[in-house]
Amino acid sequence: MAPLTVDSLNPSIKKVQYAVRGELAIKSEEYRVKLKHGETLPFKKVISSNIGNPQQKGLDQPPITFTRQVAALMEWPELAKLAPDVFPKDVIARAAELYEEIGSIGAYSHSQGVPFIRENVAKFIEQRDGYPSNPGHIFLTGGASAGVSLLISMLINSPKSGILIPIPQYPLYTATLAQHSGVALSYYLDESREWSTSIEAIEEALAKARQDGVEPKALVIINPGNPTGALLDEATMEKLVHLCERHSLVLLADEVYQINLHHADTHPFTSFKKIVCRLNSPVPLVSFHSISKGVSGECGRRGGYFECTNFSSDIIAMIYKMVSVGLCPPLAGQIGVDSMVRPPRPNDESYPLWKKETDTIHAALAQRTQVMAERLNKLPGVSCVDSPGALYLYPQIHLPAKAIDAAKKAGKEPDAFYALALLDETGICVVPGSGFGQKEGEYHYRLTCLCPGVEEYVGALERFHLGFIEKYGGL
Amino acid sequence: MAPLTVDSLNPSIKKVQYAVRGELAIKSEEYRVKLKHGETLPFKKVISSNIGNPQQKGLDQPPITFTRQVAALMEWPELAKLAPDVFPKDVIARAAELYEEIGSIGAYSHSQGVPFIRENVAKFIEQRDGYPSNPGHIFLTGGASAGVSLLISMLINSPKSGILIPIPQYPLYTATLAQHSGVALSYYLDESREWSTSIEAIEEALAKARQDGVEPKALVIINPGNPTGALLDEATMEKLVHLCERHSLVLLADEVYQINLHHADTHPFTSFKKIVCRLNSPVPLVSFHSISKGVSGECGRRGGYFECTNFSSDIIAMIYKMVSVGLCPPLAGQIGVDSMVRPPRPNDESYPLWKKETDTIHAALAQRTQVMAERLNKLPGVSCVDSPGALYLYPQIHLPAKAIDAAKKAGKEPDAFYALALLDETGICVVPGSGFGQKEGEYHYRLTCLCPGVEEYVGALERFHLGFIEKYGGL
């Protein structure tokens, strides 16, 4: 008997799907290797628009200098003596303060994260929301995903436990639910209203869950949305909190794009923490944040946090026990969180550069998003909500009947078929809508708005799209 | 109905136990905070001997300068231009090479780890063992624990799946099995023979599993042992591989202490990869390694790898899918792995310092382990195998009957009762044997051999032990 076959593995593992790094991403890696080895392809470089990874090669969004200078000094503290003139004074002071609190970043920290950094996170939250935050109920994590995965694994207490997931969703949620044998209870976002969240759609999903004998445990909200970029208004947020109260749901608020706002005047961000506090609601809330997005874009550090509100101390102790088995989050990520929640202040030597760098990133992202949405909307058969937040666009594409037939013959979802052709022809890697979920018969794809050469990038998208439509007999 | 109570959580979570960061560790943290706030306690500092964390405050094992210099340049590449004289030439060249391959360490890498670093790991393994290694079957991880946890979660395919675990064991294994509802199949190590591994004990555990209707999936071997420090000889390793063949088991080899050898002449390390290759065995093997131990001690970076041998490409694809949901291991950990597998060479500018630093760490650990074992063995009621490897001692303690009674009255395991008294009186935090597993009626504790002031440290242990025995009426 062979000891190890796919059929002998945990069956939940087989059900896990994660399209963001799936077939297309794997194929794009193969193309990258071929180009590196000098092979000739229809394109000169691979553009990884499948993933919000601002600092990757080819996009090269520069890191925030302050964050990296502090990190360099934490790596090798002697640098402050050996090359004192190279670092701004506030950076040297900041690193010295962190070293005093943490010691070596080569040591395990408290499993929940360095207490001093958690205090700084709490102050950041208090300043953002105007309500108190308890560092004892904050957990630093290796990116938001690690926290989401842990919470979902704890909440699912039987194969009949369900969690409400927006459709379209970031596939971490369905992947984690599949892994832990829980039920994804889908509620649809309203594309015709800028991907807004509807209380009725969630109530319908709850009614259906009850019919199916599934017990809903939690409601996931991604705000700003991924892949949609939509932003919730406060009135809707209040209704969502009341809905959680009515149905005894834990509210899982994925708020990692909270500062990626392209029209902050008309579409501002409000945290669920603020709404829950303002309503004096007893709803248990977990809010996730990350250094991978925002202007920091420090995906590779693996840093983030979640804050628990309305959690009893015995539940907090249980979460602590679970994170302690993994020892501690990466220290590079933890100090990245500290730099995110404590950026330079106006009188600091580092401030002008920090301000310039972050303003540039915000402006470029807003401008690219707008240009891309405009140009995609001009293409035949493409409609695209102009996202007010996050890093993505999620255009809907209408495909020729012949293309849909060809996709079926190839055993692919039509939008995956489209995305594979896009990759083969242009080197641009996007994620088909089937990876995020969509209504039956609709097709989308998600692409990031991170690519610097927007003209070249959108130009290639346009040429491909027109050629594809023509190849399959038009719309 | 309250939406969130301990009883509403996943019942597997409740069963998870992880003593290394359990009650004692939490209490020691409280003492540390009290001392920081100026409170008077019977001791002046807390000594965290509960965890192999060499660079923690109070122990302060210095990091390897080479590793940190490379890391500082990766954090802020401009440093090579701004302060070129501060860095050795080979460090600047190494960082430039890594930057060329990786780009920014703020970007997500390949989910399996940077391809170039995996190639370097493969070369390291080939040089160590003399057999080929496939970078495509190597996964970089956020420390060894993350890999162990993933593999166990994939292998458990029903609540009647079991994994053979040595007793005593590192509690990550039982914690992960509890979390994923698998069965820990215990086999006992032989304390009377320097904690050696017995084929008969494993065969007995397998027979018992069959009686209980449990299907054994894998055999865990920790070599060098944790908490025992024992080293396997090659003859035993060959028998273990054959046992895995007979019983269709996957072999999970936790080899994170592979260079922590105190008597390398009489007790050398051989990898299971080498034995499996030499025997031309088809046994599926996973070997785990880490930058947290060895001489690197870079626990906070969260870096490590596992290599799969005799795994089919469809299983590798399944592992890739699972790690892709978590995006990628921390880049700080990945470059730490690179520095571990590619240290400076004799002609490099960094070599003399690297050699001095690593020799010092090896010598200090060997010397402390020996002194501590000798002195513990002289205490009444204490017997301690002089560990040839790893970072720990695991003394057996015979306790007075009155102490055992007092422990029962307090609702504690007797060795936990002893360890709590040790912490309260001396500030030394160890982990009771009940956290690792031991035979009924036996008591042990694990302590690390990392504390620099061995005289002060062992002196405190001795005084406490003698006082404890006397307090409870002698042996």
From TrEMBL, chains A, B:
<dbReference type="GO" id="GO:0042853">
    <property type="term" value="P:L-alanine catabolic process"/>
</dbReference>
<dbReference type="InterPro" id="IPR015421">
    <property type="entry name" value="PyrdxlP-dep_Trfase_major"/>
</dbReference>
<dbReference type="InterPro" id="IPR015422">
    <property type="entry name" value="PyrdxlP-dep_Trfase_small"/>
</dbReference>
<dbReference type="InterPro" id="IPR015424">
    <property type="entry name" value="PyrdxlP-dep_Trfase"/>
</dbReference>
<keyword id="KW-0663">Pyridoxal phosphate</keyword>
<comment type="similarity">
    <text>Belongs to the class-I pyridoxal-phosphate-dependent aminotransferase family. Alanine aminotransferase subfamily.</text>
</comment>
<dbReference type="Pfam" id="PF00155">
    <property type="entry name" value="Aminotran_1_2"/>
</dbReference>
<feature type="domain" description="Aminotransferase class I/classII large">
    <location>
        <begin position="89"/>
        <end position="449"/>
    </location>
</feature>
<dbReference type="InterPro" id="IPR045088">
    <property type="entry name" value="ALAT1/2-like"/>
</dbReference>
<keyword id="KW-0808">Transferase</keyword>
<dbReference type="GO" id="GO:0030170">
    <property type="term" value="F:pyridoxal phosphate binding"/>
</dbReference>
<keyword id="KW-0032">Aminotransferase</keyword>
<dbReference type="GO" id="GO:0008483">
    <property type="term" value="F:transaminase activity"/>
</dbReference>
<protein>
    <recommendedName>
        <fullName>Aminotransferase class I/classII large domain-containing protein</fullName>
    </recommendedName>
</protein>
<comment type="subunit">
    <text>Homodimer.</text>
</comment>
<dbReference type="InterPro" id="IPR004839">
    <property type="entry name" value="Aminotransferase_I/II_large"/>
</dbReference>
